Structure formats: C-alpha cells, structure tokens
C-alpha cells in the first residue's frame, strides 16, 4: 500500500472548521482504505481527514483480493486440521468423557457433567445425523472404535477449529492492523500444534476457542460501530451478535465467564467514557446503559438457559447422574418416579427416611457389622431403593418397654417431641447410638450409630430418639406440627446423649461398601441433621387415605439446582492427574499432555514452541513497555498524546486484557488444571504478538515487513513439521522422538 | 484564644476573601461549606471537649473502663479454655526450653512465656485438654492472662488517639473507642491466653505510628520523622511476628506507602528524582529492611531459647533435629556399613520398600505388557519382607571406616527374604506408562548386573558424607537409565494386595522421591550391631546456620498453615463475620450451666457494617458525580474521606478480603482486627453525617510545604447533637454489653430460658438452651 503519497490531499478543510459527516456524504470520498491506519490516525488528529465514514471499518469490508487470500488460508487450515482425521481409530484422552456423554444424549440417559451442554450437544448432533446408536461405551483411552461415526463427531471441533483461523484474520483487520499482520496471525493459528491437536478430537476446547474468537471479533466490530455512530441498525446487529456469542461461549465451558469479563470490562470502560462526556445527557446515557445490559446480560443468560432447557428435554430418562440430584429432581426422570404414598405417619408406619442436605440417600442398615467400635450392625446412607431402607416407627414413651402391640391400638400420629424407636424391618434391630467414636469421623463430639437388638427384644433406652420437627411445608399446615411424608423436615435427637442423627459427605471404607457415614453429632450442623420421610405405609390406614408425592420442580428450579451441583462437582475435582499442571507452567510450555499412546505411536498435546514463546515474549514486552510509559507519564512526558502510542496502546491493551482475564483467574482455582486451559489466553497472546509485530514493523517498507513475516512463518512451519508426528500420531523413530525433547520436562512416551 | 489573635486571623482571611460576611452567609445555602475560621465560634460543648484537659479526662475514663472490663473476674474460669490448650502449652515449652512447632510466628507466644516465667510458672502443666483445672495444678494462669488483658485495654485509648490524630473531634474519637471498649468479642478474646489481643494491639500501634509519620510529611528527614518511620517498621514487625495474619498489616502499610511514593513521583509536585530516591530508600530501610531484621531476630531468640528436644522435632528435617539437645536422631542415628541389613522408608507416604515372591501379571488391564518380574511395592507395616542388604560394588577393607557407605556410592540392594537384587529397567510401570518398572532378579544373574546398580544421593549431601540411619534423607538413582526410585499413594490392584506402587521417576529431583533408612536390622554377621556404638558419651548437638534453620521452619509453617483444613463445628466463612452471624463456643461448664461464647456486641458491629456501606456508597456516588463535573463535597471533607478514611478502608479490606481466598479453617476472631478498623470508619462516618466541618489540615506544617498547599484552617464543630448522640449510643452499647456479658465472662450460670433470651440471633449456637417446644412428651 502506498497511501503515503495520496495522503496530502489538496482540498482538506483547515483545522478548526466543522467538517462533519454530511459533507463527506455529499462528496463521498473515492476510497477510504487508501490510507493505512497510521496515516489515517495522523490525518484525523490534525483534523485533515473526514473522520466520519459511511460505514465503520468493521472487519467485513475487505478488498476482494483479501477475500481470495482468506479463502486460500482457510483451505490451508482445512488441510492442516483435517489431515488423517480418522487416525487414530481409537479413543483419545477425554473422548472417554465427551464421547460417553454423546452416547448418553442419544440414549437420553441423565448424566451430570461439570460443563454446560452446548459443545456436547453439537457433537451429539453430528453423531446422531451419522446414525450413531449410543451403544459404544468409550471406556478407556485407546479402545478401538466400533460402529461409531467418530470422524463425524471429530469433524465438529475440527470445523470450529478451522473457522477460528479466518476469525483471527478478520479480528486484526477490524482492529486496523495491516493485512500482512492479520495474515501472520491467521497462519500462526493455523500452525499452532496445540490448537490443531485439541481441535482434532472430541473435546470441548475447540468450540470454546472458536466462540471466544467469535466474541472478540464481533465485539471489536461493535466497538468500531460505537466510535462511529450509536443506535444504528448495524450497531444493534453487532451488539446482539456479541450477546449471542457470549451466551455460546459460556454454554461451552464455564471458562467462557472470562470472556464475559473481558467484554464486561470493555463495556464498563465505554460507559465510563460516556459518563465523563458532558455532551451526553443522562437520558442518552441510560439508553446506552440499557441497550448494553439487555444485549450483553439478558441475551447471554437466556441463551445459556435455553441450552439447559434443551439438555433437560433430551435427557428424560434416569441414568447414572441421578445420584447427584435432589429427590424432587430425580422424580422428574423416567424410571425414577415414585408411586404416591400415604401422607400420614403414625406409630407402626413402615417408612423410608432420606437425608435432606446430601444426596447420600436413605437411612440404611444391612447385616454387616462395623469392624471397630462396638462391632454392631452398620447404619449408612444408601442412594438406591432397597428393602433394607425400611424402618418401622414405634412408640417408646412407655418406660423401658417398646410398644409392640401397636396393631391393637388406635392410630397415633407422630408429633413433635415424641419419643420413638426405629426398628429396621429386615433385620429386626433398632437404630441405636452410644458413647463410642464412629469409624471415620473419630472426634469427640461424634457418636457411633448402629443397629442393635434381636427379634422380640424390646430394646434399651439407647434406642430411643426424640422427633424434633424443624419445619413443615407452607402449603400443608399440619406438617409443621406432626410428621407428614415428604412435607416435614425433622431432626432425631438421641434421648440419652442429646446428640442428633447426622450424616455428611464422608464415605465409609470398603467394609461399608463406600456408603455414606451416619453418626450422632453433638454439635450438629443444622442442615446436615435434617431428615424427611419419603414413603410411608400403615396397614391400618384406609386405601383412600390422603396420599402425597413429590412436587415436580419447574424448569427454573431444576436449572438452578443443576448449576449448584455442577459447581460443587467442579470444585471437587481436586485429585491429582498424571498430566495436570499449574498455571505458572503454561506460558513457558513446560510440559504437555499425553493424549494417547499405542504401538509406539503417540499423540501428545504440545504447542508450537516458537509461536508459543513468541506470544509469551509479546505479553511480557507489553507489560514492560506499558509500565515504563506509565512511569514516564507520571514524570511529565507526553507519550500518550502521540497517536501511534494511542492506537497501539488501545489495540494491545485490549488483547492483553483478554490474555490476563483468561489466564490469571486460574491461579485462584484449586481444581485439576491442564495445559489446554491456557488455549483461550493463548489465542489472545498470539494476536497480541501480531499486534506487537505490526508496531515494530510500522516504520518499515511493506516489502521488508512481508519478508520478516515470511521468515517468522518459516520458523513456525518448521517447528510444526518437526513436532507434527505428535499431533497426528504418525509413525516416528525413537531417535527423532528423543531429539524432539527440546525441554527435559517434555515427557514424551516411548 | 485571645481576642487579638482571633482578629489577626480574620485579617489574614480578609486578604483572600474581602467580604467575610458574604462567605459566612454562603455557609448555609451552598454546597461549599465554610467552617468557622475562629475556633471560638464553635459551640460551647465542642470547645470544652476539645481542650487538653477534657481530652485527658476522656482518655482516662476510657482506659479505666477498658481495664475494668478486661480484668473483671479474669481468674474465672480456672480451667483451660479453647486455644489456651495450644498457646498455654507453648508458653510452658518456652519455660522448659523444649522445641515445639506451630504455624504462628513466635513473638506473642514468647511474651506469654515471659509472662509465665515472670509470675513463676514452672512449665510443668501440660494444657492437655480444654477444661483441665489450673487451680489444682497451681498454675499462675492469671499472670499469663493479664498480658493480653493489658494489651487489650491499651488498645482502647490507642483507638481514641488515632481518631484524634486524624483530626476528628473528641466526641467522635470517644465514639470509635466505645465500639471497641464495650465489644464483647474484643473483651472475650483479650481475657484468655490467645494471640489475637497482642496482634490487634501491635496492629493498632502500627496504624498510629504510620499516621504520626504521615503527618510529619512536610518535615521530612527530621529526627521525629525518622522516629515515627522506624516505629512504624518496628510495630509492623511485631504484628507480623505475633500471628501469621499479621502479614496482612504489612501488606496494608505497603499499599499506603506505595500510594504515598506514587504521589511524590508525580511531576506536578515538582520534586526532583533525587528527592524521590531519598524517600524511596528511607522507606526501604524503615518498612522492609528493619521489619525483616526484627522478624528474623524474633526467630533467632525463639530458636535460641528452644534448644532442647521436644514435641516439635518430628516436623523438622534431620539436619535441624540434630541441633536439638537430647534428640532421638542425634542419639540413635548411626553410620550404615556395607552388608548391613536395613529397612527403607519413604519420607512422604511413610511406607517401607517391600518385595514379595509374587510377580507382576504379564498383561495389565489396559493391554500393556510387563516384565513379569517379582513385585516391588511400598508396604505400610513392619515385615521381614522389608529387609534389604546393602551390597558393595567395590572392594572393601577388612575393617574400619572404609566399610561405611557414603554419598555418591554405587550400591546394590539385596532383598533378604527372596535372595534377589533390586533392579529397574526400561519397562513401563503398572500404573504409569511414563515411569519405569522396579523389580528384582536373582543375585547371580550377571547379564542384568548393570541394571541393578543404584547410586546413593544424600539430600544436601557433600562428598564423603556417611550414610546414616534415620537422619540421612536420600534419593536412589538408577545408574543406567537415570530414574529415581519413587512411590506415590496410588494403590496397585488386587494382584499386589493393594500395596503402593514403586516405580522409577524420570524427574530425579522430584520432592517426593526421598527415602530414609528407618532402622538397621542386623549387620554383616547378623549379630547385634549395637556394639559398634559402644558406650560413647552423649553426642553434643550440632551447629547449623541460623538462616538455614529459619528458612526451613518458615517453609514448614506455611505448609502446615495451608493444611489446616479439617472442619470444626464453630468454623465460619468470612462472609458471615461482619454481620456477627455466629460465634465460637470457647468453654462450657455443665454443673452450673456456665459458658463462654465469643460473640461481638451486636450494636457496635452492625453500626460498623452500616458505616462501611455508607462509606462505599459516598465514595462511589462522589466519583460518579465528579465524573459529571459536579462537586458536592468541600475540599477538606473530600480530602478527609479520601486520605484518612481511605487509609482505614485499605486496612479494613486488606485484613478482611484475603480470608476469602484461604482454604484453611476460619473463625470469627480472624475478623477482630478488621472490626477494630471498621470502628474507626464508623467514627469518621458519624462525623460526616453530623457536620460538614472537620479539623483541617492535620498535617504539621514544615519547610517542605509548598505554598499551594497552605490551606485555611477549619475546625470541626458537632454542636451539642454530637455528644448527645454518642452518649446515647454508649449507653446502648453498655446495656447490650452487660446483657450478653454472662456469655463473655462465663459467669454467672444461666438457665435454659435465660440462654434463649440471650440468643439474639437464631444462628448463635449456645449451649444449655431450653427446648422451644414446651409439650415434650414424657
């Protein structure tokens, strides 16, 4: 581009005179793009350029030649990303999970995963269209596929991975970088081994990165529009698109929240600037505010909820995710529904009791004893329906003698404060507690709970419990005063020691079949000592006595419950994994992830070292230069009045913000982290490195710039080719593999 | 002030604003508040309270009340309460000079030791359980409890002094002091042998000194300026050395100092770089070098006192332990000689290196193939299969020191029970494809000889260092393939009896690849090896560099602090603290239904929360409004809100928000430092609400003061409303304080109904509550 010559137009208005949009529309300028970004900025700052344009320099108005170039790049990306996509023909890394989830969607079996559903739904859609029946179990890494359209499924991430490449180009163009720079960025993304590897398998990160890139692009376009003129049709279009795309990114993985934070900070900045602009009336400011709130908060939330609506719609059958959900929720799943049960609980009722706060399930006992402590029969929580969950509630108010003749007496309902015994029906023993430490939570304030007694033995005073009704249901007034099935939450206080029947998320060891521990706790956390009766049966109640069932939760309560469960599960992923890593290792590319090994071939997730380290260097150089500029500004230097500084500060500043917000929050997470969590940040870092390239080469002639870009690209491609056997799982010699260990910490398998 | 001087004041004022009367009229109707320039124009009450004598009287009353509330029945209960279990015990360790280990730095605990020593405590009482009786054991516990009580009492006048120094009127300062004075939480915490009172006292001292220092900024590099700078550094170090969370005070001061330096750097202030550099290095000296030196010094004293072996030995490395007199390692550690039979234990997981005749299965579940060699595993229990003999790979002298195994020696390990030799080779281990399998081969299999060679690398070893039982931590490096013998807590499947996998880790420097010799079982002849020791005299403790000891201690303190994650019934999450949702049960006594429950004074705490939200609201509103070009606050008031209250707010936030990031158990008393600071903010907010006047400027003028900074003096005037409101407030505080005092002092005993009535929030978990439902079936 040789815009420099034409920049000196004769008919420029003198500075100070108005030269607003109307004039430029009356005399449309022949071509706006003939100036490169710097020259335009410079001219604008001198007031020489008609700064208002008919259309903002969004990324979509490219020259026809650029479109052709872009098509070529996309074809190249297809070649790189789709090469031998069917290889290996066995399960790779987390395909174990995500393939399995696709099977479950197809079988509509309920499951719980820590990630939102969008990306999984897309994969499922591909599998469904290509006729997958959901029979394959994706059990282990390297299990050979059998009747699974796995190529079609892998096509989803691969396609999105390919689409990321032109997005990088368009984004940088929309940020007013030169075509060479944008091309360099697109090709860096194309040849980034890590991004390629990640996009070739049934994994969620490629969709995530695609949507992150899409959001960045549409947001940039929106910002361009916003600088130009607000509330136009295209302004609204880009804003709504940003909202949709934010919804999509957060529906792939929760990491998308960082993208929301990036856009959110950008929005706050815009609003802050508008606030400081005294020409903007409060009314107009409110319009700006409401428009953004609507599009950037409401739309993403609705999008996200819609995804979950689909999720619930598809998963209508019971499956292995039931155990995570509350009993009301489970009741909505086919195969877990429960028949109506008597509403009243009376002396002699046969009941099952569930724990309120954990999903441990029913109060349970079985004919196995504790290995330590009292060596009496175990009492646990068990999540499934079973005859061993049945208890008979008996009157214990008569001193020392259990009222076994309840059949002959009239019905007595259970009131608050009543003293009862709970007799385990299948073993004929009573729920019992005494001054012994429980097997796992061996602390002073916990007592062991066991089943003790024998048939026809009325039991001792340690079997006595006092029912304390905690709260009833608002719509069933009686339930606050006497025990009603499903509606009353109550605590059971041990009559002699005053401790409360208690359970918490602690599993018994193998001898207890890893069921949940039940204890009697003297300092019980209230929520963990609450119980309710799930089913109740009494022979003396007439058939037409009032019956109850769970109230079906609405979409909103199901949605909120699932969010909580996902959060808890996510926070609970703290086991070490062989290939996990901490965030400080990522920018250095200290170590990769072993995805798949078989027959001396392997797939190892590793970045393109040159691109990777270059991007990290760009980030650090930005920090150093920006810090230096701030110090200079404090000492009175006027750098920030230089248009070049302003332009690149805005560009690199935004990309750095994106990088930082997608990277630093990981330091706060204590869950398992992997190298691929860095990829969204890497995307920003690569764009940033290209922004730095644009700045550094801004004084050079276009040809020289092209040579430098070509040189960088050659190194990148050489790196890619050198390590490509790790990407595609190609045959490799041992010597080459050893040679490829550039860092000692890259633990390639051999 | 005399009439003459006041008229002079008027005249000076007149030069700038010729029409004084019109300015005085504006005072009423405009946003620009003109304070009474003449201190005599203030209300009578304000004038009375502002003079020196009244101020002294108020300080006197506050201090007297503080002492009274903190010392009232300090001898009750005469039992070990809550964490006195720990801190009392540590004090007795100082007196007995036994080494102990704790996550907190030593200063506050040393002070307890000192107090105990001063009142003649012999350190024999063990502080084993909450509820152990002091009187029966003749422990002078009152003397030890007096220390935090004194410091806690002194904190109250300090709060008053901080507010006065910041230019608030006397009555506002008294208000802030009242919030701390009548706070049940502060009182309960400072009557017992706990670290928090010390921490809070030093934190308050730090704030006070920093404010004094900051007020001298126009007289920089004068002796007073240096004095307060160094005082700040000193108290900062004391805070930090009292309790781990004292480090937050260091951060808070650090932030304030950075903001200060940033201002000095500002080109508009017209200071030269050379001037900035001088300030910078002065602060480095006062706020970095001095505190670190003091902190190290406290640890030096700590280690110098604790010279005997004690319960903390096992937390430390062998090299550290050998510096303690009477340490087991020091006494029992012995040189290992070739052909000795030993047991080897993994440092982190505590399992023995074990082998048994069973073999690895040919094929694992995931399809990989093994060597089918004999299994080598980690096993937790003592067993003859843990016995290994050290085989030399070089010629040995007949007798003497040449037979001792040393650092860097290449050895073989013979499994005694199966007569096979330990081996590692390039076969993937059962659980980890990246790591090498460990197995054994027949002793005489010469073809595999090279695979059985291991090099002994002692941790921090030097050439020729002897390999010792118990005290030498070592890595075992396979010579041929360069892997380190390693084990991890993952169990092998049933075919290996669920024992732990042992494999070769390619990361030779993995922190967890460290082993030690647990025991020498027998020597070459199979005889009792003890004769080697003979009857040597007791070994003298070794010397070790203080900095090495300090670094090790500091590191393991941090690690243990992070590891304190087990749940506690009275632990609470930080979000609940400012609202006083729940307290901590410190102590109960069943026979007479007495209890100590740590809970604050509801009025004081909620006032503070209100003040904090008011401050946040005012700040945000004023930023937004200023952005629209509207000025609502006069300069003195805005300055006060930004600089003085802003400083308090930094302290509050820095002492509060980091707890949200901590995974360890957290308790209400972690909020007490923040609560104290929020009382200061509450005072500032009261002053803001009552009047738009402040005492301004508060900084002491000096040569550095630029002409542009010379401001007209303004004086605070709260009128009569101020004292009335504060008086009512103080009475209300006192009333509520007395109402829940039985929970704070643990006496008198309360019956169930009374306990219920004292339970102001339903979330407080008090003991001895009466059941709410009256109709308990009999």
UniProtKB/TrEMBL annotation, chain A:
<keyword id="KW-0677">Repeat</keyword>
<feature type="transmembrane region" description="Helical">
    <location>
        <begin position="650"/>
        <end position="669"/>
    </location>
</feature>
<comment type="function">
    <text>Transfers mannose from Dol-P-mannose to Ser or Thr residues on proteins.</text>
</comment>
<feature type="transmembrane region" description="Helical">
    <location>
        <begin position="675"/>
        <end position="697"/>
    </location>
</feature>
<dbReference type="InterPro" id="IPR036300">
    <property type="entry name" value="MIR_dom_sf"/>
</dbReference>
<comment type="pathway">
    <text>Protein modification; protein glycosylation.</text>
</comment>
<keyword id="KW-0472">Membrane</keyword>
<keyword id="KW-0808">Transferase</keyword>
<feature type="domain" description="MIR">
    <location>
        <begin position="480"/>
        <end position="536"/>
    </location>
</feature>
<feature type="transmembrane region" description="Helical">
    <location>
        <begin position="704"/>
        <end position="723"/>
    </location>
</feature>
<comment type="similarity">
    <text>Belongs to the glycosyltransferase 39 family.</text>
</comment>
<keyword id="KW-0328">Glycosyltransferase</keyword>
<feature type="domain" description="MIR">
    <location>
        <begin position="411"/>
        <end position="470"/>
    </location>
</feature>
<dbReference type="Pfam" id="PF02366">
    <property type="entry name" value="PMT"/>
</dbReference>
<keyword id="KW-0812">Transmembrane</keyword>
<dbReference type="InterPro" id="IPR027005">
    <property type="entry name" value="PMT-like"/>
</dbReference>
<feature type="transmembrane region" description="Helical">
    <location>
        <begin position="151"/>
        <end position="170"/>
    </location>
</feature>
<keyword id="KW-0256">Endoplasmic reticulum</keyword>
<feature type="transmembrane region" description="Helical">
    <location>
        <begin position="110"/>
        <end position="131"/>
    </location>
</feature>
<dbReference type="InterPro" id="IPR016093">
    <property type="entry name" value="MIR_motif"/>
</dbReference>
<dbReference type="InterPro" id="IPR032421">
    <property type="entry name" value="PMT_4TMC"/>
</dbReference>
<keyword id="KW-0325">Glycoprotein</keyword>
TrEMBL record, chain B:
<comment type="function">
    <text>Transfers mannose from Dol-P-mannose to Ser or Thr residues on proteins.</text>
</comment>
<dbReference type="GO" id="GO:0005789">
    <property type="term" value="C:endoplasmic reticulum membrane"/>
</dbReference>
<dbReference type="Pfam" id="PF16192">
    <property type="entry name" value="PMT_4TMC"/>
</dbReference>
<keyword id="KW-0325">Glycoprotein</keyword>
<feature type="transmembrane region" description="Helical">
    <location>
        <begin position="193"/>
        <end position="213"/>
    </location>
</feature>
<feature type="transmembrane region" description="Helical">
    <location>
        <begin position="99"/>
        <end position="119"/>
    </location>
</feature>
<keyword id="KW-0256">Endoplasmic reticulum</keyword>
<keyword id="KW-1133">Transmembrane helix</keyword>
<feature type="transmembrane region" description="Helical">
    <location>
        <begin position="167"/>
        <end position="187"/>
    </location>
</feature>
<dbReference type="GO" id="GO:0004169">
    <property type="term" value="F:dolichyl-phosphate-mannose-protein mannosyltransferase activity"/>
</dbReference>
<protein>
    <recommendedName>
        <fullName>Dolichyl-phosphate-mannose--protein mannosyltransferase</fullName>
        <ecNumber>2.4.1.109</ecNumber>
    </recommendedName>
</protein>
<keyword id="KW-0328">Glycosyltransferase</keyword>
<keyword id="KW-0677">Repeat</keyword>
<dbReference type="InterPro" id="IPR016093">
    <property type="entry name" value="MIR_motif"/>
</dbReference>
<feature type="region of interest" description="Disordered">
    <location>
        <begin position="1"/>
        <end position="41"/>
    </location>
</feature>
<feature type="transmembrane region" description="Helical">
    <location>
        <begin position="603"/>
        <end position="625"/>
    </location>
</feature>
<feature type="transmembrane region" description="Helical">
    <location>
        <begin position="248"/>
        <end position="268"/>
    </location>
</feature>
<feature type="transmembrane region" description="Helical">
    <location>
        <begin position="280"/>
        <end position="301"/>
    </location>
</feature>
<dbReference type="InterPro" id="IPR032421">
    <property type="entry name" value="PMT_4TMC"/>
</dbReference>
<feature type="domain" description="MIR">
    <location>
        <begin position="333"/>
        <end position="393"/>
    </location>
</feature>
<feature type="domain" description="MIR">
    <location>
        <begin position="464"/>
        <end position="520"/>
    </location>
</feature>
<feature type="transmembrane region" description="Helical">
    <location>
        <begin position="139"/>
        <end position="160"/>
    </location>
</feature>
